[in-house]
Amino acid sequence: MDTNEETTFLSNLPLDILDSILIRLDLPDLAKCCRTSKALYPLAKDALYRDLRLSCNNVLKACQKLTADADLARRVQTLVLIDNTVQLHLGVIQDALLILPNLRTLVLAIGYFGSWILPQGRKCPFQLHTFRCGFLYDASTAMFLSSQLLLKSLAVNSVSSGGEEFRPTHHPCPASYPNLTTLFAPLSVVQDIVPGRPVENITTSSSEGDVDPDLLTCLARSTAPNGVQRFMIDYKYIRSIGGTALARAVPNLCYLSIDANDINPAHDKTISVLTEYVEDILSCLQQMKCITIRFHPSLSTLPCRTINFQDLVTRAFETSPYLKYVIITFFGLRARYVCKSLPGFDWYLCAD
Fold this sequence. Notes:
By secondary structure, the protein is α/β, with parallel strands linked by helices. Helix content is 33%, strand content 18%. Strands 1-2-3-4-5-6-7-8-9-10-11-12-13 form a 13-stranded mixed beta sheet. Helix 5 runs parallel beside helix 7 (90-97) and helix 11 (268-284) packs parallel to helix 12 (310-319). It comes from Crucibulum laeve. Residues 7-52 form the F-box domain.
């Protein structure tokens, strides 16, 4: 089959199948498809600009091109920029955001203090489903979010470059983002956002002053049908509140992740204390299906693969007959242990 026959064959495919093929191509191949035929051009161009992932190397050129071509700007549905070296281009990024009417996913990890580039009020041309940023939850961030009525997933920051926590002074109004289901934010922000919204998936962290178990009462005020179902918190806070307070805040919790970011996983006594806290939590939350513990290899005195977690896993399964999985992970590493238990059988390692 020569090139013309291949082009004709592709052009005659149903549009949904052709689109499914195009979204799996990398950028150079999509660019070639744009130049292949008039029939392929509009679909290939849609796929090429639908999902933009920028860096300091191409952000200036891409934003200038979008600003100059409204047709291209209308095609963008996802914009991802993860680069802390783009500070000189914040102005042109701001201009580009003002002309993206179909944007649905926006990820901006470009520093702590760039929230002023976010479109405010009626100037915002889009309604996001997902927004993730490294910005502080300040006045500009809060005002931008107040216009995002379709938002389902939100990730914000509250820790400055100096490591000090930024306490939010701007609280969302009750009508803001009524469809929010997933939240990644420090506990100080979680307290403001969860009440009155159907949030069921939360990843959070505590600060030095967050030792009051009542801080978690906000989770019980989620309007999700079954309340919060997935929750990730640091081990330091788990130690300060215990299983009873956690169960009171999230009585229907099914998936718990503990970020063990301050312990040595190779220290037997430390792991023994962790195991006792895990038992306490599982005894209070009997309906739990999965518990995940994430260790940090930089704190370990032994290679992570050589550490034996058998006692921790065994005691977890013994405490809760409904628990199906215990998962051990390591921050920054792909290696993990997935342990599964079936009624009437001993637990075993699996590839799930």
